[in-house]
């Protein structure tokens, strides 16, 4: 069913149709007569997408377009025919970008070594980067655009954003570009590109390096639009794809930033090795659907001994087979009338033989439903393995408890999502920080907080008992536990609890020696406060008993 042409394109649908034609011819050379249902009962045609890539082979050598190794249009829609692929893709885009993006300083702004000038510059660059992230796309937002890119990349192996520049030739925003319509061109001749870097003395300097750029072509409904690779300083006409200096501003090509899986010209999706199993699982689902749709139809062989069916019985069987599908035709009976053969006995008389009719079930020859379940489960495991995801991230958490769930999340976060976030953030920082003139800040993709406060508290107990923990050290943990902001205590109280108790005891003892009547006054004040609190307690209990609170 799965074949790869010389150019290694996926052409699964055509092969599936050929297999269907071969299957339709099976049994025609067998001498036994087979009763088949009418065309309305089901279909042997595939429900898979039937779209050929219109772009393949439609370019001239002058365009220098490189054809993709796989049918990108089919890959972009293949998740619609899988029961597990879209869940894996959603897990990637949610856990990589879904927790937010922020601008962050490269240095510790509260450190002792940072100067006020450096601190001010870092804060300004951080605000500039945060504004760029916030307003890069006014319609959907930066996070939504990058999630579209990740979804496209996981489906086709390629993701693109179109970068827009303002009048000062600085990156000002970006838009999502669908990968199924984008084709990559060969690299051009190397040109000199100027970069601004920070030297060892902390000063900004310019360096020049050789770099080869690509062009990109988008074709939709036979309309071609050219793009240049992000960072290419040469003006290019978006209608012709030609470089030149005398190009009107309205015809200047914009830039594409390419995110891909792998190091090839085109990226390859992670699940490409499991694509045969994907279509096999789809076929199993379709076969089960036809089984339930046709309801009570059981494959069987009707054998007649010492007789033959009359025309009426033959027609009854044919009608029964044609109307066997559907719940409205359930619980019907089939009446067969068979006449025996007329033979001459020993006395020379003509008599009719005893007829024997048997209906033998052929259901044992069919694939059992349990085999399909095992096949589907095996396919789901293989697909999750391709994405390196545990079942917890695809909505299959039946076998998890709190401990195993926390372990699965921690390992997946360390092995899958954190490296993906760092790689994605590294690409974005390399693309936008230098053109924006930002050196002391960076773009950072947020990650989930997997800290378990309840497990940290017992670990802190011996340190707290030894006086090694200050109150302000654990205030952030207290904020997470309570779900609200907790302010730090003043510096005069930010001491180990043992030291604070010792100081309070010493002060109390000193005050008792200088003012013996002070303890009596304090005892009276405490008794008065206790009475007020008891009255308040009684009032609240009375309101509760009457259902008012």
For the report, how would you describe the main beta sheet? 7 strands, mixed
The outline comes out as flat
- List segments where confidence is low: pLDDT < 50 over at least 5 consecutive residues: 1-57
Average pLDDT over all residues: 79
Q: Specify the helix fraction band.
A: 40-55%
Description of the structure:
- The protein has 13 helices and 17 strands.
- The protein is α+β, with helices and mostly antiparallel strands.
- It has two domains: 51-268 and 366-450, no CATH class; 457-545, no CATH class.
- The strands form six sheets. The protein has a seven-stranded mixed β-sheet. A two-stranded antiparallel sheet has the order 2-17.
- Helix 3 (85-97) packs across helix 9 and helix 6 (275-294) packs antiparallel against helix 8 (369-387).
- It is flat.
- The chain starts with 11 loop residues before the first helix and ends with a helix.
- Residues 1-57 have low confidence and may be disordered.
Would you kindly provide a brief summary of this structure?
Belongs to the phage portal family. PBSX subfamily. This protein is an alpha+beta fold.
Supply the key terms.
549 residues; alpha+beta; 2 domains; seven-stranded mixed sheet; two-stranded antiparallel ribbon; 13 helices; 16% strand; flat; disordered N terminus
Sequence-ordered SSE layout with sheet pairings:
Layout: H1 12-25, E1 65-66, H2 72-77, H3 85-97, E2 101-105, H4 116-135, H5 142-156, E3 158-165, E4 171-177, E5 182-185, E6 191-198, E7 204-211, E8 215-220, E9 223-229, E10 255-260, H6 275-294, E11 300-305, E12 307-309, H7 311-322, E13 338-340, E14 342-344, E15 350-352, E16 356-361, H8 369-387, H9 402-436, E17 441-445, H10 453-465, H11 475-482, H12 497-514, H13 518-545
Parallel strand pairs: 9-10
Antiparallel strand pairs: 1-5, 2-17, 3-4, 3-10, 5-8, 6-7, 8-9, 11-16, 12-13, 14-15
Helix pairs in contact: 3-5, 3-9, 6-8
């Amino acid at each position: 069913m799965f074949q790869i042409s010389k150019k290694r394109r996926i052409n699964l649908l055509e092969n599936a149709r050929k297999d269907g034609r071969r299957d339709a011819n099976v049994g025609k050379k067998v001498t036994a007569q087979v009763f088949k249902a009418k065309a309305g009962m089901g279909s042997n045609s595939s429900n898979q997408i039937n779209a050929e890539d219109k772009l393949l082979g439609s370019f001239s050598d002058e365009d220098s377009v490189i054809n993709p190794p796989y049918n990108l249009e089919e890959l972009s829609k293949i998740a619609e025919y899988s029961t597990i692929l879209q869940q894996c893709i959603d897990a990637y885009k949610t856990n990589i970008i879904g927790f937010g993006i922020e601008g962050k300083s490269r240095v510790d702004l509260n450190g002792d070594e940072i100067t006020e000038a450096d601190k001010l510059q870092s804060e300004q660059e951080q605000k500039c980067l945060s504004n760029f992230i916030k307003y890069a796309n006014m319609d959907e937002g930066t996070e939504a655009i990058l999630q579209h890119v990740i979804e496209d990349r996981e489906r086709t192996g390629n993701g693109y954003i179109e970068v827009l520049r303002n009048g000062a030739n600085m990156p000002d925003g970006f838009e999502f570009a669908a990968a199924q319509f984008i084709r990559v061109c060969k690299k051009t001749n190397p040109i000199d590109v100027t970069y601004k870097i920070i030297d060892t003395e902390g000063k900004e300097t310019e360096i020049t390096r050789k770099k080869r750029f690509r062009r990109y072509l988008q074709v939709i409904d036979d309309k071609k639009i050219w793009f240049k690779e992000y960072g290419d300083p040469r003006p290019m006409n978006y209608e012709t794809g030609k470089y030149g200096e005398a190009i009107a501003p309205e015809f200047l090509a914009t830039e594409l930033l390419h995110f891909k899986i792998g190091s090839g010209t085109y990226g390859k999706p992670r699940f490409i090795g499991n694509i045969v199993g994907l279509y096999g699982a789809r076929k199993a689902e379709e076969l089960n659907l036809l089984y339930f749709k046709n309801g009570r139809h059981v494959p069987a062989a009707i054998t007649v001994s010492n007789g033959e069916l009359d025309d009426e019985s033959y027609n009854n069987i044919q009608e029964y087979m044609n109307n066997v599908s559907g719940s409205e035709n359930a619980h019907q009976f089939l009446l067969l009338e068979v006449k025996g053969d007329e033979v001459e006995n020993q006395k020379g008389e003509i008599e009719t033989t005893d007829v024997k009719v048997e209906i033998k079930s052929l259901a044992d020859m069919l694939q059992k439903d349990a085999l399909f379940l095992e096949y589907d489960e095996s396919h789901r495991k293989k697909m999750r393995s391709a994405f390196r995801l545990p079942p917890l991230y695809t909505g299959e958490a039946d076998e998890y408890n709190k401990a195993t769930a926390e372990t699965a999340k921690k390992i997946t976060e360390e092995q899958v999502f954190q490296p993906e976030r760092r790689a994605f953030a590294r690409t974005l920082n390399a693309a936008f920080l230098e053109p924006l003139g930002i050196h002391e800040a960076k773009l950072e993709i947020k990650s989930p907080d997997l800290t378990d406060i309840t497990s940290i508290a017992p670990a802190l107990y011996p340190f707290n008992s030894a006086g090694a923990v200050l109150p302000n050290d654990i205030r952030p943990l207290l904020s997470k536990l309570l779900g609200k902001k907790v302010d730090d205590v003043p510096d005069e109280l930010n001491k180990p609890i043992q030291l604070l108790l010792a100081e309070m005891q010493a002060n109390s003892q000193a005050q008792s020696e200088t003012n013996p009547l002070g303890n009596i006054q304090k005892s009276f004040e405490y008794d008065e406060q206790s009475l007020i609190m008891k009255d308040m307690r009684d009032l609240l209990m009375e309101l509760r008993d009457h259902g008012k609170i």
